[in-house]
Amino acid sequence: MHDRFILLKRHIELTEMDKITLDLWTKNHPSLGTAYDLKESYFDIWECDSRQTAFLKYIEWKAKIPTELQSSFEPLTKAMKNWEEEIFAYFDHRITNAYTESLNSLIRVINRLGRGYSFEALRAKILFAEGLKKQRKPKYQRRLDSYDLRKENFPMFNTTPIGVVRESEELILLGIDFSTIKSEYPIFLDSIW
């Protein structure tokens, strides 16, 4: 059994069997239980309605970290201290830079595989290959109660989508369209190729 994954799950996502396993681990290892509770309460910070409430909840959370676990949470608390303004700005606008970070990771992979692309070539590869228009697809929510192990021991066959969370597909523009670049900036294209 992969009990480690139970510790990574949010408490609301745990099945009854997961809860029993988690309870056994936390009773035998109290510091593990404390760390799990700290993880859960840290995620609760992101449910706050305002920046001030979130900051106060973070201060309370940080004060709850016992001395023996401070070294384990040190990378997180250090990052929160270093990037406090940027992190708590999330509560002002509810926007993250996850897409940008993902794109930066993709750029690093392309650069590593390409060995020596110029900046202009890398930029063009990302703009033209990745595309500037994204179509969001509807997300489906799965039923949690279908993971009952007593149902023929095949929970994957019992899982059915129960509804669309987001019904309409959105078109998101991520930059300048290629036809605009082609007509307005032909010199840019010549310098790349």
UniProtKB/TrEMBL annotation:
InterPro entries: Transpos_ISL3, Transposase_DDE
Signal sequence coordinates: none
Domain Transposase IS204/IS1001/IS1096/IS1165 DDE: 3-126
Superkingdom: Bacteria
Official protein name in the record: Transposase
Taxonomic source organism: Paenibacillus jilunlii
